[in-house]
Amino acid sequence: MIAGKTTVDDALFVETPEGPALLGSRCTDCGAHTFPVQGGCPRCTGSTMVDVPLSRTGTLWSWTVQGFTPKKPYTGTAAYEPYGVAYVELPGQLIVETRLVETDPEKLEIGMSVELVLTPFRDDESGGPVHTFAFVGVADV
Amino acid sequence: MSEVAIVGIGMHRFGRTEGVSGRAQAVHAAREALRDSGLRFSDMQFGFGGSHSAGDADTLVSELGLTGLPFINVANGCATGGSALIAADAAIRSGQHDLGIVIGFDKHARGAFNTDPAEHGIGAWYGETGMMITTQFFGMKIQRYLHDHDLKPDVLATIAEKAFRNGARNPMAWRRKEMDAAEIAAAPMISHPLTQYMYCSPGEGAVALVLCRADQARRYTANPVFLQGAAFRSRRYGSFEVFSPWLASERADSPTVEASAAAFAAAGIAPSEVDVAQIQDTESGAELMHMAETGLCAHGEQEQLIASGATAIEGRLPVNTDGGCIANGEPIGASGLRQVYENVLQLRGDAGEHQVPGDPRVGFTHVYGAPGISACTVLTR
Q1: Among A residues 101-130, those touching chain B with beta carbons less than 8 Å apart
Q2: Is some CB atom of chain B closer than 8 A to the CB atom of A92?
Q3: A86 touches chain B (CB under 8 A)
Q4: Per-residue pLDDT tens over the stretch A77-116
Q5: Is residue B231 part of a domain?
Q6: Which residue in B360, B334, B358 sits closest to B346, CA to CA?
Q7: CB–CB of B130 and A93 under 8 A?
Q8: Domain coordinates of chain A in residue numbers?
């Protein structure tokens, strides 16, 4: 459970005072970030990574909308389709691949401001929603 | 060091061949390549080959002949054929062997590939939430590319239209029906901005090549084609590749840029000298991006080149003259060798209805695929 919600994998997240954030790694040698956490640095090849919460806000770097129901290993529930997919640039950290809440191409534009939310993508055996991370558009501040 | 020549080519038609296994298609291609070079399997000193979904290439010897040759399986995703060819190139160039065969084949189930994240070292969540999907990656990659280079998405339908036009002229292609750009653009959206007919489909097929020391090539053929350069590269930190839960903020070139530059450098040939090019068109956006990443044109220049017909068979820079992946489908293990097969046909002047006019002299091939790899060749007659 993260923020009181069932998630696809709690290890992807960390709770912060501002709300749930993605948990990444930062290299203590060169400052490179990864998501999810990993032990080795793909940039400098070192192995001194530490866990860090990733930014909860960023800008839309690229996007698409999933146009068909994927095969397994996808486990989503039809009620939560279609879904958007994007890369979101988290300032000073990395560009994370994510689901998008918005699925109307007319409402998506590279560079728009977005923030992290937990969104349901399937229902479990008891009918309760299982959440994953997604980004949703916010007004520019 | 020995130079390397291709002296025999063979193919099993791409598409769907019900009741014929991938291995049987590979054996057919191998026999065709041997026949083309006037050789027998017992003459082969080595073999390299692979498939993604249709079995181990080294087991083909049970059908081709138990001659004791070293036959090494290659598994490199979409670059399987290209990697097999590079291994053969090294085996001959180093003087280890004089003559051998490479075989690429495959037979995939219908529909988009579904890959297990664990094979790529990624958590199960990535597949469960619907992000382990190649078509999405291509949609997002071309979306960003169009944005960065101020290109209009209309060009994507024009590229697919050319693929089907060329496929209609190629008797070995899978998709042989022309389709106009308006129909392609209006087809169901698979991954915005790419529609159904802008993507290639997983398919079936096989290609084999017989290679030898260049100074012995005329023993086997009157029309050898010389492998002047072959190079393979994997991704650098900062490139944008399929199955990436994250990208680095600092950007780096795709492996295509380094692999193509290395192949051209090895050949001592400039991209501007290319007469016919086969480049990875997993979807039409890939052809657009790869035209520039391979050095065949500048970024942003593609729109004008494509609109003016420069990339058509009769154009100044013919691209994917056999219809590419879009018209041939993508049997992963065979796809890269299909490109070489097509260039050999073109350089021999044997491509029939899809022959590039003007006696082409320099051919270029490029494959690109998961998890961020590229293999390129430069061929001359």
Answers
A1: 105, 110, 121-122
A2: yes
A3: yes
A4: 999 999 999 999 999 999 999 999 999 999 999 999 999 9
A5: yes
A6: B360
A7: no
A8: 10-137
Contact B313, B307 (CB under 8 A): no
Comparing C-alpha atoms, which of A14, A54, A10 is closest to residue A33?
Answer: A54
From CA A116, how far away is CA A13, in angstroms rounded?
Answer: 11
pTM of structure:
0.93
Say if B147 falls within a structural domain.
Answer: no
Average pLDDT per consecutive 10 residues, chain B (381 residues; last block may be shorter): 93 95 97 98 98 94 96 91 95 97 94 80 95 94 96 96 98 95 97 96 96 97 97 94 94 96 98 98 97 98 96 98 97 96 98 98 94 94 96
Tell me the chain B residues in contact with residue A34 when contact means C-beta distances shorter than 8 Å: 246
Chain B residue at shortest CA distance from A33: B248
Q: Cα distance from B175 to chain A (closest Cα, Å)?
A: 22
Query: From chain B, which residues contact A within 8 Å (Cβ)?
Result: 111-112, 114, 116-117, 123-125, 127-133, 136, 139-141, 143-144, 147, 188-193, 237, 244-249
Q: How high is the ipTM of this complex?
A: 0.96
Under 8 Å CB-to-CB from B198, ≥6 apart: which residues? Answer: B156, B157, B159, B160, B184, B187, B190, B283, B284, B285, B326
Q: How many CB atoms lie within 10 A of CB A113?
A: 15
φ, ψ of residue B197 to 5 degrees: the values are: -85, 0
Q: With CA atoms as reference, report the closest residue to B381 among B339, B347, B343.
A: B347
Residue B239 domain-assigned (yes or no): yes
CA distance B238 to chain A (A): 9
Measured from the Cβ of residue A103, the count of other Cβ atoms closer than 10 Å reads 18
Q: Does B128 sit within 8 Å of A35, measured CB to CB?
A: no
Residue B209 is part of which domain span?
A: 4-110+200-380
Q: What is the 3-state secondary structure (H, E, C) of A24-66?
A: EEEECCCCCEECCCCCCCCCCCCCCEEEEECCCEEEEEEEEEE
Query: Structurally, how many domains does chain B consist of?
Result: 1
Token readout for B170 is 């190629």
Query: Which domain CATH number covers B277?
Result: 3.40.47.10
How far does Cα B296 stand from its chain's mean position? 16
The SS3 assignment for B291 reads helix
pLDDT in tens, A25-50: 999 999 999 999 999 999 999 999 99
Q: Note whether residue B164 is domain-resident.
A: no
Of B130, B140, B244, the CB nearest to A74: B130
